[in-house]
Amino acid sequence: MTYTVPVPKIFACTQSTALAEKIAKSFGSDIGKVKFSRYSDGEFQPSFEESVRGARVFIIGSTNPSSENLMEMLLMLDAAKRASARHITAVMPYFGWARQDRKDKPRVPIAAKLIAKMLETAGATRIITMDLHADQIQGFFEKPVDHLFASTLFLPYLKSLKLDNLTIASPDMGGSKRAYAYSKALQSDVVICYKQREKANIISHMELIGNVEGKNVVLVDDMVDTAGTLTKAADLMMERGALSVRAITTHALLSGDAYEKIEKSKLLELIVTDSIPLKKQSPKVKVVGCADLFADVMNRVHNNTSISSKFLM
Q: Which residue range forms the structural domain that includes residue 207?
């Protein structure tokens, strides 16, 4: 008697349905059927409407707040585990709560590690994600983590612009490694912004380390939330003589008055991926799709082939 490996099955969490459909199309599959039952108090229950016994299951969902997105992923992982899926991969284009990756003051949680343990307990046997806020978050998992870089999407776009006097900039000290990786690939200079925060999302002071006069500057970051850092950095660079300032950020949280800040700022454009659905459209915000990248990696995982080329900056 021969055993036939079932075809992989792809399921989507609610908020990532549009991206999951693009990934499934690129993968060469359809989205699996999931039914969500809701109670009047807001509690919900996902149910797979097709068998996943013995199958490789990919569950696609970013876990940015609200916490309902994370809970949805956890419940779907648990459902797949209890339905006897053979391999369960959590495909998380954006790994939420990642800014809490260490104790930066007394009596605070390390939320990123807590969530890693929750995902594994729920049933994830593998994680695929993109541009973690901090690389060391991979060490919070005991299961394999495929950490993809959006630079494989952004670099071709930047090269297509054919900008003279290109300079890569990091909006803070923590992003200097990322900025240097881009500058190496583009053979450009690097400048770094030094900022001090009054509190979370509030910048009290910013200084520029390096020269941007006569340069076309590209700010590089992993996420944009309130857009305070990026817009302040762009305005500062234009004051210091930059010819233009663009920004590339993988995850577009864009909360609060972020859109208004971007549109009023001297940023020429903000280039993001669709790891998180945009709340609204803006003439300054350009989206570079990540579906083909995730579909390619999922195919390689299923076929047990190397994906190391997707790790490289």
A: 151-289
